[in-house]
Amino acid sequence: MKLVTIPLAALFVIALAGCSARNPVAPAPDSGAGPPAADAPFVLTSALDARLPAPMEEALDASSADLAITGAATRARDDDRRDRPKGSAEPVLFWSGLTTTLARGAALPPPLFARAYALTHVAIYDALIAGSYHARGGLSGSALAAGAAAQVLTYLFPASAADIAAAAQAQIPAGDTRLVLRSWRLGARVGDLVVRYGRSDGSDMPFTGTIPSGPGIWTGTNPVLPMCGTWKTWFVRSGSQIMPEPPYALGSPQDLADVAQVLDVALHRTPEQVAAVHKWADRSPPAIWCGMLNDEITARQLSLRQAARAHAFLNTAMYDAFVVCWCAKYLYWTARPFMRITDPAFTTVIPTPNFPTYTSGHSTISAAAAAVMGEAFPDKAGYFKDQAAEAAMSRLWGGIHFAHDNDQGLLGGARVGRRAVHAMRHGFGSSAIAANGDEADD
Asked: Is the dihedral of CA 374, 34, 198, 228 positive or negative?
């Protein structure tokens, strides 16, 4: 087969606009981004969810372990310790960093990395909403976040339970011991409910199918998370709601041009392209986007509530984007470039991940992330779109994806992002889903 050289595809411009979503989520009143909307949590039904303890009764079920964490923590503060400013976003940054460390240490594949972020930050955001109800009497945001995050992270990383407890203790603020205990317990109760949600999201479902075979089909073994496309989602009804067009027919002109392009890029890589490959491959992509968000939180001095909200939306959007992407991957089982290209001059910059190629995970989740980031920080929306486009192109430059994988990934991720943005702006219910379905999406 003669390979034809074609020029590199231009960077994509992702068109992002409001669209539908699934769960009852909405921005907090102090978000400062987009029109105001009802302050609704992700997993709780409201700030007064019936599953939560009544105001002033949050600590009735406190255990000796709770007393040890909150009591010992407040007693251990040095007299000259300078507490963080009230409402500081530091707790959100702290728990984001710990989640990153634990997920990296457990070598989680990217979809599970995103799931860990999503559950942790949803718990923190929901706990802050629950704790903000006026009858609860001004609970501690740091302790609420610690109780919620510690509960979720202990579920996700049980082998690190002792380290997580120590981290939580370090996050407990000085002050009224009883109020801190009430805050901690309310946060932990919210964390329990998020853990219950996580246990029912299908992420532990085993693969019982058969890997297909044939020309153009992925030929690996032990594929990573083949059931991920069936996991429960936040903003889309299911992973199959947003599907790409089919892969190019094997041997078609479009298919052969895609193959030729990957080889041509591999033979003419620039140092700048190699650097971009490593920028997007040396860390898990959800961690890269969370790092970008943390930089914005710090630079703009966002409040605790603002930071928690931004992280909850960013990470649930990326999680949904992974589910959508993985649904396509294991519907089509499309072969990777190294499985198609026999030219001995062909090399990849990085190892090829152990799952099918179509569509690109980096492209899909980056487009979704760019939508949320652009909504939260509209003055940098163009920058985030450019970052998503670079993330997509880096997979072609690295030799591990075809252009069609990236193009369709960007489109699918943008559709997920539009649903997340719609929820950020408006919240929604059944009527909003009906009014903003697939017909309005495209």
From this structure: negative
Residues 265, 355: one domain? yes
Residue 278 sits in the same domain as residue 178: no
The answer to whether residues 391 and 328 belong to one domain is yes
Residue 4 phi, psi dihedral angles, 5° rounding: -100, 135
Task: Kindly tell me if the per-residue pLDDT of 135 is higher than 80.
Answer: yes
Q: Residue 337: give its domain's CATH number.
A: 1.10.606.20
- Where does the pLDDT of residue 441 fall: very low under 50, low under 70, confident under 90, or very high at 90 and above? low
Q: What phi, psi does 31 have (nearest 5°)?
A: -65, -35
Confidence band for 27, pLDDT divided at 50, 70 and 90: very low
What are the angstrom distances between the C-alpha of 155 and each of 113, 117, 169, 412?
14, 13, 17, 31
Q: Are 227 and 206 in contact (CB under 8 A)?
A: yes
Contact status, residue 111 vs residue 326, Cβ threshold 8 Å: yes
State how far Cα 366 lies from the chain centre. 10
Contact between 223 and 211 under an 8 Å Cβ cutoff? The reply is yes
Contacts of 304 (CB under 8 A, 6+ apart): 87, 88, 89, 90, 91, 92, 128, 141, 142, 145
Residue 184 lies in a domain: yes
Residue 61 has pLDDT above 50, yes or no: yes
Interaxial angle between packed helices 361-376 and 381-397, expressed in degrees from 0 to 180 and rounded to the nearest 10: 170
pLDDT tens, residue by residue, 299-350: 999 999 999 999 999 999 999 999 999 999 999 999 999 999 999 999 999 9
Query: Are 183 and 259 contained in the same domain?
Result: no
Mean predicted confidence (pLDDT) in 274-279: 98
pLDDT digits (tens, 9 = 90+) for 316-330: 999 999 999 999 999
User: How many independent structural domains does the chain possess?
Assistant: 2
Q: Domain for residue 13, yes or no?
A: no
Q: Name residues whose C-beta falls within 8 Å of residue 299's C-beta, 6 or more positions apart in sequence.
A: none
Please indicate, yes or no, whether residues 400 and 303 belong to a single structural domain of this protein.
yes
Whether residue 138 sits in one domain with residue 258: no
Residues of the domain holding 107: 64-77+85-199
Note whether residue 22 is domain-resident.
Answer: no
Are residues 395 and 320 part of one domain?
A: yes
Is there a domain that residue 27 lies in? no
